[in-house]
Amino acid sequence: MTAAERFDALSRGLAEGVRARDGLIGLVLLGSASDEASHRRDEWSDHDFFAITEAGRGAQVRPDLSWLPDQDRLVLTAREGDIGFAAVYDDGHVFEFALSDVDELAGALAEDATVVVDDPEGSTAGLIERSRARASAADRFDPANDTRLLLVKLLIGVGRVRRGEVLGGGFFIRQWTVQLLVRAIRGRCAEASTSLRDTIDPVRRFEQDFPEWGARLAAAVEQPAEDAARSLFDLAREILEPGWDAFPSAAADTVARRLGWNAAAV
Description:
Blueprint: H1 3-20, E1 24-30, E2 47-53, H2 58-61, E3 74-80, E4 84-89, E5 94-100, E6 113-117, H3 123-138, H4 143-163, H5 166-188, H6 206-209, H7 211-221, H8 225-240, H9 249-259
Parallel strand pairs: 2-5
Antiparallel strand pairs: 1-2, 1-6, 3-4, 4-5
């Protein structure tokens, strides 16, 4: 069985399991598992999905995952929060899914999605319609605010590193600062973002829309924490500041002075 055939077989198995399990009424395949984004699948693609329970039955249904396909090949299942789950098969294939009723997913975001199983009332299709609308509304950037905030996160992160909290400070630098810089770039250069972008996670496929900057951001975060912070700071000024009156130049100068960074690039 090829990887593509295995993927499709698991999708069919999920649908069969949902249809057969009392208390489950819907299945939505998300991201590259969906029909509309199947062209993005590769050997690392997993199954992201929503499994929808009857109203009010989430807590009752969640303890039992016997409806997942190929039970004899499952090597682990794990919980992620109240309604989230992950599963791994013996070939390394991953499921990540929410198992809940429609109300519990009231704040969910969805982009590429295929409704595979639904009830006669169309509860699952309605959920996805609302989730897509929320995702579209959330796909907005405020580059000026994101840039100001990245300076805050960077300053806090370096301060923690210098205090000896290298792990926590590195988290601020490599996660918060990078995410905000990516958001600011996408906001400032919206015309360069293509249909490949993920409207829910702006970091996804950033390198495909901005290959040079993506490579430089990736190289920056591979460095020790403070070196990574300095490189990200310099990248923010290089990419965003020229010709943009909203760039917080005075604040950036303040951060550089506080951290003892001179004007020269690392």
